[in-house]
C-alpha cells in the first residue's frame, strides 16, 4: 500500500513533506522547491491536499495546492497517483498547473503554466 505521509524528493531535487494523513484523506505539509520563477532562494511553503482512497487493488490518487510563501505571487495545483513497484519502492506521478498573478485581464493569457 502507498503511504503519502513522509518525505518525498523529485527529479529536480525539490522536497515535499506530508506531515499527517487524516482518516478522511486530508493532508498537509510543506514543499521546498529548487525551481523558482524569480531565480531566487526558495523557502518552505505550505501545502494542503486530499487523497482519494482506492478501491481494492488500486493505487490512491491525490491532489494538493502549494501557496508559494514569501518569494512568489503564485499558487500551484498538483494532481497525481501513488504506485508501489515489485520491490516495494513508492513513486508519486504528478502533473501541475502554476498560476502567477498578473496585473490585468488582458495579461490573463500568460498567467498559467
UniProtKB/TrEMBL annotation:
PROSITE patterns: AVIDIN_2. Transmembrane segments: none annotated. Homotetramer. Forms a strong non-covalent specific complex with biotin. GO terms for molecular function: biotin binding. It is found in: Secreted. Its main location: secreted. PANTHER family: AVID PROTEIN-RELATED, AVIDIN-RELATED. One of its GO terms (cellular component) is extracellular region. Disulfide bonds join 2-82. This is Avidin. Keywords: Biotin, Disulfide bond, Glycoprotein, Secreted, Signal. It comes from Acanthisitta chloris. Belongs to the avidin/streptavidin family. Gene3D superfamilies: Avidin-like. It comes from the Eukaryota. It holds the Pfam family Avidin.
Amino acid at each position: 500500500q502507498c503511504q503519502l505521509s513522509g518525505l518525498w524528493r523529485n527529479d529536480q531535487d525539490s522536497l515535499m513533506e506530508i506531515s499527517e494523513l487524516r482518516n478522511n484523506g486530508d493532508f498537509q505539509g510543506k514543499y521546498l522547491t529548487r525551481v523558482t520563477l524569480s531565480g531566487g532562494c526558495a523557502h518552505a511553503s505550505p501545502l494542503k491536499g486530499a487523497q482519494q482512497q482506492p478501491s481494492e487493488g488500486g493505487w490512491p490518487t491525490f491532489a494538493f495546492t502549494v501557496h508559494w510563501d514569501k518569494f512568489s505571487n503564485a499558487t500551484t495545483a498538483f494532481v497525481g497517483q501513488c504506485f508501489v513497484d515489485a520491490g516495494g519502492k513508492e513513486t508519486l506521478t504528478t502533473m501541475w498547473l502554476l498560476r502567477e498573478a498578473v496585473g490585468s485581464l488582458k495579461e490573463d493569457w500568460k498567467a498559467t503554466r
